[in-house]
Amino acid sequence: MSISSTLSTYPKYFIGNLQELFSISDYKYLVIANITMFAGYQIRVMALAWIVLDLTQSETSMGLINSISGIGVIGMSLFGGAFSDRFERWKLLWITKLLVAIVSIITGILLSMNIINENTIWILIPLSLIIGILFGIHNPSSQTFVVDVVGKEKLVQAVSLNTSASTIAQIVAPSLGGILIWLGYDISFYFISSLYILGALMILSVKTRSKKKTSKAKTQNIFKDIKTGITYSLKHPIIRPLLIISITAIFGGMYQPVIPVKIKNDLGLEELDYGYTLAASGIGALLGSIILFSIGSRVKNLYVLIISFIGFDIGVIIFGFAPNFLIAILSSFMMGTGFACWMVTVPVMLQKYASDEMRGRVVSLYYMTILTYQLGWFFGGYILEITSIEFSVLFSSLSSILIATITIISSRELRKL
Fold first, then answer.
1. Angstrom distances, CA of residue 8 to CA of 1, 303, 341
2. Quick one: which H or E segment has residue 245?
3. In this structure, what DSSP letter does residue 264 have?
């Protein structure tokens, strides 16, 4: 079915899919939990970026500290995937959310007591690493638990609606984050902790449990589990190219340090304008995810994947060269739309084609690749410091497009999807 004919029946698909999903009682708790987690993540990233840039005036330090949590996620994701395939996902989710809340409270207290300042900014490094490790355990279960709740048949709609709900948080959270940063750096982290606690309470309200794991699965060597998952993924004709495409996330991360520098130093704007810029990206992501929610699997995955790369990477280039705030906002909207299409299509395809017993480990490999995005913060900050905003956005966008193009052309199975 063509995109135009699908969009013409958009309202009917939207209402029908919405009714189907919310007929599943546990799904609404899952959506609220994802909103709180995503909002907390958004505020934390922007608060850290602004705090470090304000205290150190160093783009490299800003990129380094924001990339540290990514190292934790990447290092722990394989174990998180194995845990997801071994243990009860419901329990892993609420425990990790509470632990992230505790670390956020500790960060807020250290800021309130002025223990974290321009001379002790390094304290944020171990705290960010711990957050990353916890997310490494949390993320594979978060993705795979959606299938436990709604089933594979409704996976596209469920992930799309999750993304829609999360991007509502992406719209609200940056604007709210700008206000919270203005009120006080410590207040930002106290608020973040309250969001994570609410998310944990929502998961505790969910009655669905994962399929019962066998005693053999729980006692088998975890490193053997990890090796089996890697081998399976690298040999799979669809999963392998999707994971290669996911590596382009590092170039998306390289663009991230450009945002506060562009807003603060190039355009001479303030915290609230930084929040509005991120909120515009959230509005674009909301539009993209709602469209995908409505059309479901009626449009070829390959077309959506190509559109997502064009939308995001061209948007990044326009943002880097934006002469004023209006162009920056519009390009941010464009990036958000492309990003949402990418973040729905790739994980859905991975879970659709992975076997049930390998699903957690496949998703953990996806998170390892996608969260090179946070490592991109460091490399992007360094490149930005030694070159320019314009060079940074051109390098990151063109590299991303090149890898995606080569992968799609070389994978016959991917082109059939």
1. 11, 18, 19
2. helix 239-246
3. I
* Beta carbons of 242 and 373 less than 8 angstroms apart: no
**Residues 56-83: tens digit of each pLDDT:** 877 677 777 777 777 787 778 788 888 8
Q: Which of 238, 223, 230 minimizes the C-alpha distance to 86?
A: 223
Look at residue 12 and tell me whether its pLDDT is greater than 60.
no
d(CA 163, CA 293): 9
Q: Residue 29 and residue 138: Cα distance in Å, rounded?
A: 17
Structural contact between residues 42 and 259, judged by C-beta atoms closer than 8 angstroms: no
Residue whose C-alpha is closest to residue 89's, from 162, 30, 144: 144
Say how far apart CA 287 and CA 91 lie, in whole Å: 33
The pLDDT value recorded for residue 112 is: 86
Average pLDDT of 343-356? Answer: 78
C-alpha distances in angstroms, 32 versus 38, 204, 219, 332?
Answer: 10, 12, 34, 25
Q: Which of 207, 77, 224 is nearest to 136 (CA)?
A: 77
Contact, 154 vs 73, CB < 8 A?
A: no
User: Tokens in use for 128?
Assistant: 């960010």
- The band of 166, judged by pLDDT with boundaries at 50, 70 and 90, is low
Would you give the distance in Å from CA 22 to the centre of its chain? 24
Q: What is the distance between the alpha carbons of residues 339 and 327, in angstroms, rounded to a whole number? A: 18
Q: Helix or strand or coil: residue 91?
A: helix
Q: What is the rounded end-to-end Cα distance, in angstroms, of the chain?
A: 13
What letter would DSSP give residue 298? Answer: S
Task: Give 385: exposed, middle or buried? Use CB within 10 Å, 0-12, 13-18, 19+.
Answer: middle
Confidence band for 318, pLDDT divided at 50, 70 and 90 = very high
Rg of the chain taking only CA atoms, in angstroms: 20
**Relative orientation angle of helices 301-320 and 325-353, to the nearest 10 degrees:** 150
Is the distance from CB of 348 to CB of 155 less than 8 angstroms? yes
In this prediction, residue 3 carries a pLDDT of: 47
Cα separations in angstroms, 168 against 31, 43, 282, 284:
11, 13, 7, 10
Given a contact cutoff of 8 angstroms between Cβ atoms, the answer to whether 309 and 282 are in contact is no
For residue 78, give the DSSP letter.
H
Q: 373 Cβ partners below 8 Å, 6+ apart?
A: 70, 249, 250, 252, 253, 256
What token pair was written down for 68? 């540290």
Tell the residue number behind the tokens 């490592």, with chain if given: 375
